[in-house]
Amino acid sequence: MDLSVTIGSLTLANPLIAASGCFGYGVEYGDVVDLASLGAVAVKGLFLTEREGHAPPRIVETPSGMLNAIGLQGIGVHRFIAQQLPALRARRATVIVNICGTTLEEYVEVARILSDADGVGALELNISCPNIKEGGITFGCSLPGTHAVVSAVRKVTRLPVIPKLTPNVTDVASFARAAEESGADAISLVNTFLAMAIDVHTRRPRLTNIVGGLSGPAIRPIAVRMVYECRRVVKIPIIGMGGIATAEDALEFMIAGANAVQVGTMNFVDPFIWPKLMDGLHAYMAAHGIVRLQDIVGTVDTTARQNSWISS
Amino acid sequence: MPLDVDARVIANRRLSADYNVVAFEAPAIARAARPGQFVMIKTSRGLDPLLRRPFSIFEVLRDETGAPSGISIFNKRIGAGTSLLAQVEPGERLQVLGPLGRPFEPVDPPADAWMIAGGVGLAPFLTLAEALAVRRTRTTLFYGARRAGELYCVDLFDALGVRVVLATEDGSRGVPGRITAPLEAALGERPLGEPVKLFVCGPTPMMRACAGLARVHGRACDVSLEQVMGCGLGGCYSCVVPARRDEGHPHHTRTCIEGPVFDAQRIVWDAMQPH
Ligand SMILES: Cc1cc2nc3c(=O)[nH]c(=O)nc-3n(C[C@H](O)[C@H](O)[C@H](O)COP(=O)(O)O)c2cc1C
Fold this sequence. Notes:
The complex is a heterodimer of chains A (about 300) and B (about 280).
Chain A: E1 5-7, E2 10-12, E3 16-18, E4 40-46, E5 59-62, E6 65-68, H1 76-90, E7 95-99, H2 104-115, E8 122-126, H3 137-140, H4 143-156, E9 161-164, H5 172-181, E10 187-189, E11 193-196, E12 198-199, E13 204-205, E14 211-215, H6 220-231, E15 238-241, H7 247-256, E16 260-263, H8 265-269, H9 273-288, H10 303-307
Parallel strand pairs in A: 3-4, 3-16, 4-7, 7-8, 8-9, 10-15, 15-16
Antiparallel strand pairs in A: 1-2, 5-6, 6-14, 11-14, 12-13
Helix pairs in contact in A: 2-4, 4-5, 5-6, 6-7, 7-9
Chain B: E1 3-14, E2 19-25, H1 27-32, E3 38-41, E4 53-56, E5 59-62, E6 68-76, H2 80-87, E7 93-100, E8 112-118, H3 125-134, E9 139-145, H4 154-159, E10 163-168, E11 175-176, H5 180-189, E12 196-201, H6 204-216, E13 220-224, E14 240-244, E15 250-254, H7 255-258, E16 261-263
Parallel strand pairs in B: 8-9, 8-12, 9-10, 10-11, 12-13
Antiparallel strand pairs in B: 1-2, 1-7, 2-6, 3-4, 3-7, 5-6, 13-16, 14-15
Helix pairs in contact in B: 5-6
The site of flavin mononucleotide has 26 residues of chain A, from β4 and α8.
């Protein structure tokens, strides 16, 4: 069976990727997960320098999901390269680095530095974090902003460039198209949905940051719909995510149009989820006589629904 | 290396309307557990509540031969997850991930060990008391609660030969007032030549007060911090506390992997969220 996925110059052994911000720098999970068995590890978002993030409480549980406002705490790109990348290399992990910036120049600088480092497989451009005021999502919420960041990073790196799209826009497909036209090798979606939870007894927001990003199974159907919409307008690979908890959930994203998937929140709930997902993909391929998993990508059959005699 | 065990509930001992002790069959976790470590428990089979909850390992249970066979947790009913744990029945199975976190470092004689617990902060001290008993370290438990009815499991510490000092805010048992008062008196009386290490777990203001007393009296002090946790493995960065690094600057530091036990003087108490 062939589960491999190709994203630009990078080939992943399988489509299962640990989602950024949900897997530390990967090394934290070295005792629990065989990092080499994952398609890739997307590490926590990195700026040029160290950042402390928001004051706690940073997460709150909601029905079938959670809100987070971590605020992109991170060790910065230089310490990542010095301290974490060698350990990831030693464990033979395929590494996707999630990069952030408060300015266009910062994205470019971080991308340039990582391009010279040994052991980086691809760059995922975080233009979609809802939790920081400056930069980031302001690029991801405007078509010219998306175009500017993606094409600027494209010019300074030979690594695959994967802008990560926000769902907090009216028409996500137009952002997918902008990313493709700007030279992206793939897109990933979705980042979290801007959301809020309030303690009615104190009338205070449950997060110090007031608002945060919703993730987990609660968002899955919306994320699947967004992947489906993007698949219809772009040719480049799509990495889909949002609430994946089982192999069936992963397959749902792939049939909607994703070439690979990421798992975030459910890795918190079950860090031993990875071999279970892998077994589930194998079982599905065996049951349906599928030899190449990529053959199911975007194969959702909508004809029956559209031809229904009852529709006017 | 943490394990995830589909652990059978062996017993649910209800201590009061709000507190209970749940025992799980989990030999592998019990064998690996060190004092002060914790587990992450999935309190439901489904998606609600979604995330696991962190619990100190309260007891390491043993079979007739003395081999570790399971663990228990000390549960206080606060929210959805802890309410489900208040109601579990023997025979049910729950996912238990552990052991996790940096353990306490017990001390050896001639040093004494003083454990200071407030409310549900009693949880990590039974395993520590056992480790100290094995080392024959003289151990005292300073244990405070609002009222007598909220002091639990003191007999378990008595049985290990721990000297127990109690305090209640309403004066219904032990010293009236906060537990920090008898602690402060004991610190004042202790000759400097006689070493003692403090181990503290409880509400943030209490831990802060103990950290201050330890500093003034020049005594080593470990605190065990309880924070909201998403994963327990260092993945999510939700359980951070402001802690100083070697160079002295404070950074948001993950309680799950760098703690839950910290040197009290590393914590920037002014910046800690009260809870
Ligand atoms: C605690 C937490 C931290 C996150 N941090 C990042 C991050 O640093 N960069 C990023 O691009 N996405 C981040 N995300 C978003 C996830 O990568 C993912 O897009 C989102 O959670 C949806 O997937 P899920 O439902 O499987 O978690 C974070 C999500 C969570 C829950």
